[in-house]
C-alpha cells in the first residue's frame, strides 16, 4: 500500500524535534556541577555587558530544571539592583498557558506538576505581559536565527503567541548553555522566535532583530 505522502513532512519534523530534544537534554544533563556553577556566574557577566538588558526594571526569568542554565545568581544580582523579578506559574484555569508572578526572597513557593518550584498563586502579585520588559526563556535547543525549541509542552509558545503585538512587546531572550546551540532548529508554525539568546559565552543577536 502507498504511504500517504503529504503527511510525511509533518511527521518528519516532529520526529526530528523529538530526537533533537532528547539529544540536547542529555547533553546539558551531562554538565558537571562545577560547569553548571561557572555557567551561572558567566551568565551574570554576559547579562551585565548588554545595555539593552541592564536598563530594564521588570524581568521575568525561570527557576532551572533538567540541566537548564541556572538563573539563581542572576536573580540574586537583579534583586541587589532593586529590579523586579517574575517567574512563570502554570495557568490555574487555562491548561497549557503561563502567568507571571513577582518573585521576592520571601515569596512562598510550591512545586508544580513537573517538580519545578513556582510562586504560590497570589493574584495581587501577577504581572501582565505588556508590563514585563524582558522574558528570559528556558529552552532545549536554539539556533543563530533565534529559533527556539522547548520541553515540548508549548507553554511559552501559547502564552507568547500574541505578546509580539503588545505595545511595548516584551523582549524575548533565550537563556541556554552554549552546547544547546544547533545549526538549525526544525521550526513549527507556532514557534515564537527570540530577539536574543544569552549563553555563558556569547550573546547571539538574530539578524532579523539586530537594530
Ligand atoms: N525551568 C523551567 N520552567 C518552566 C518551563 C521550562 O521549560 N523550564 N516550562 C516551559 O514550557 C513550563 C513548564 N513546562 C515543562 C514541560 C515539561 C517538563 C518535563 O520535565 N517533562 C518531562 C515529563 C514530566 C511529566 O510528564 O511529568 C519530560 O519530558 O521528561 C517540564 C516543564 C513552565 N516552567
Ligand atoms: N500558539 C499555540 N496555540 C495552540 N497550540 C500550540 C501553540 N503553540 C504550541 N502549541 C502546541 O503545543 C505543543 C508543543 O509545542 P512545542 O513542541 O513547540 O513546544 P515547546 O516549544 O517545546 O514548549 P515550550 O514553549 O513550553 O517551551 C504542540 O503540539 C503545539 O501544537
From TrEMBL:
Binding site for substrate: 63, 68
Pfam families tied to this protein: 5-FTHF_cyc-lig
Family of the protein in this entry: Belongs to the 5-formyltetrahydrofolate cyclo-ligase family.
Catalytic reaction list: (6S)-5-formyl-5,6,7,8-tetrahydrofolate + ATP = (6R)-5,10-methenyltetrahydrofolate + ADP + phosphate
Membrane-spanning intervals of the chain: none
Cofactor list: Mg(2+)
GO biological process entries: folic acid-containing compound biosynthetic process; tetrahydrofolate interconversion
Binding site for ATP: 17-21, 148-156
Keyword Ion transport among UniProt keywords: no
Annotated InterPro entries: FTHF_cligase, FTHF_cligase-like_sf, NagB/RpiA_transferase-like
Designated name of the protein: 5-formyltetrahydrofolate cyclo-ligase
Keywords: ATP-binding, Ligase, Magnesium, Metal-binding, Nucleotide-binding
GO MF assignments: 5-formyltetrahydrofolate cyclo-ligase activity; ATP binding; metal ion binding
EC number: 6.3.3.2
Amino acid at each position: 500500500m502507498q504511504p500517504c505522502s503529504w503527511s510525511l513532512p509533518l511527521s518528519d519534523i516532529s520526529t526530528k524535534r523529538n530526537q533533537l530534544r532528547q539529544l540536547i537534554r542529555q547533553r546539558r544533563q551531562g554538565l558537571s556541577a562545577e560547569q553548571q556553577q561557572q555557567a551561572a556566574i558567566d551568565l551574570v557577566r554576559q547579562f551585565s555587558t548588554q545595555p539593552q538588558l541592564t536598563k530594564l526594571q521588570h524581568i521575568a526569568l525561570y527557576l532551572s530544571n533538567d540541566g537548564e542554565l541556572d538563573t539563581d545568581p542572576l536573580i540574586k544580582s537583579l534583586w541587589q539592583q532593586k529590579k523586579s523579578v517574575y517567574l512563570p506559574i502554570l495557568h490555574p484555569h487555562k491548561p497549557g498557558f503561563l502567568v507571571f508572578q513577582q518573585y521576592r526572597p520571601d515569596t512562598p513557593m510550591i512545586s508544580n506538576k513537573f517538580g519545578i518550584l513556582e510562586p504560590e498563586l497570589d493574584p495581587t502579585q501577577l504581572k501582565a505581559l505588556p508590563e514585563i520588559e524582558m522574558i528570559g526563556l528556558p529552552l532545549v535547543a536554539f539556533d543563530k536565527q533565534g529559533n527556539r525549541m522547548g520541553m515540548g509542552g508549548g507553554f511559552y509558545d501559547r502564552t507568547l503567541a500574541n505578546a509580539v503585538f503588545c505595545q511595548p512587546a516584551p523582549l524575548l531572550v533565550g537563556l541556554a548553555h552554549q552546547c544547546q546551540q544547533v545549526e538549525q532548529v526544525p521550526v513549527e508554525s507556532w514557534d515564537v522566535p527570540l530577539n536574543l539568546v544569552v549563553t555563558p559565552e556569547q550573546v547571539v543577536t538574530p539578524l532579523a532583530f539586530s537594530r
